[in-house]
Design a protein that fits this description.
The protein is α/β, with parallel strands linked by helices. It has a single domain (2-243), classed as Rossmann fold (3-Layer(aba) Sandwich). The protein is 45% helix and 15% strand. It is built from nine helices and nine strands. The chain has helices at residues 17-28, 44-54, 71-76, 95-100, 102-130, 151-171, 204-216, 227-236, 240-243, and strands spanning 9-12, 33-37, 58-62, 84-87, 133-138, 176-182, 185-186, 201-202, 221-223. The strands form two sheets. The chain has a seven-stranded parallel sheet with strand order 3-2-1-4-5-6-9, sandwiched between helices.
Length: 248
């Protein structure tokens, strides 16, 4: 990515462990970074740390993925505009609560699909007008097949994955590259307390490195740990009569 060193990187969902790891990785490669999140001012210590550690400009931007009416204004006020936009916005929610509450299910669906898809779609249009740019959406292996244990979250991620695929297909040859990232389990605050298998669980820095390399190599879709590609291929191909009897 030597020729793109000065390209500003916008991290949507920068409050998350993965978002901050991504910011550090791109800043280490001399990219200016914009940290976007709700209550962005609370990230000032992180902004200072990244700027001091890596010697790049780091700015904060207030962003609420649920406030779709404000998205165009949010994008317009970024100066200079980002050349790489990475969305790590997401919320797993609670499956039982989503089953029982329309509001809870709506929040999970909007946070994981509607909001991220709309904001990335908007930036993609801006980039297409210039003929250059990179869009990165962090989706999930949960979207590869609906499973009883998390199908509300999984369905939203499935929609997001399909959106990114369609966006990539539409923008092929127009100078805008779209990358879909499926991390699998990640050791973050969101998964704290969960009994995660070590072999299948990545650290936030590992996710950040995988994204950095995939952007440089213009990859289309990646599983952060390759074993997830095999696992999900098996799950996708279980016949439905058998799959209905599983407890996945």
């Amino acid at each position: 990515m030597t020729s793109e060193t000065s390209v500003p990187v916008l991290v949507l969902g920068a409050r998350s462990d993965i978002g901050l790891a991504i910011a550090h990785r791109f800043a280490a490669a001399e990219h200016p970074v914009i940290l976007a999140a709700r209550r962005a001012a609370e990230l000032d210590a992180d902004r200072s740390d990244i700027a001091l550690r890596h010697g790049v400009e780091v700015t904060l931007a207030e962003f609420d993925v649920l406030d779709t009416a404000a998205m165009a204004d949010f994008a317009a006020q970024l100066s200079p505009p980002p050349g790489i936009v990475i969305s790590v916005v997401g919320a797993m929610g609670d499956q039982a609560e989503s089953e029982a509450s329309l509001d809870a299910a709506t929040l999970v669906m909007r946070t994981n699909y509607e909001g991220p898809a709309l904001i990335l779609g908007h930036f993609a249009e801006l980039m297409a007008g210039k003929g250059s740019g990179v869009i990165v959406g962090v989706s999930s292996v949960a979207g590869d097949r609906g499973r009883a244990s998390n199908y509300v979250y999984g369905s939203a991620k499935a929609g997001f994955t399909a959106f990114l695929s369609g966006l990539r297909n539409r923008l092929a040859g127009k100078g805008v590259h779209v990358l879909t990232v499926k991390p699998g389990f990640v050791d973050t605050r969101m998964t704290e307390g969960m009994d995660l298998p070590q072999r299948l669980t990545a650290a936030p820095a590992e996710v950040a490195e995988a994204i950095f390399r995939a952007v440089a190599r213009r990859r289309n879709e990646i599983y952060v740990r390759r074993i997830w590609a095999l696992i999900m291929a098996v799950i996708r191909n279980i016949p439905e009569p058998i799959f209905k009897k599983t407890q996945l």
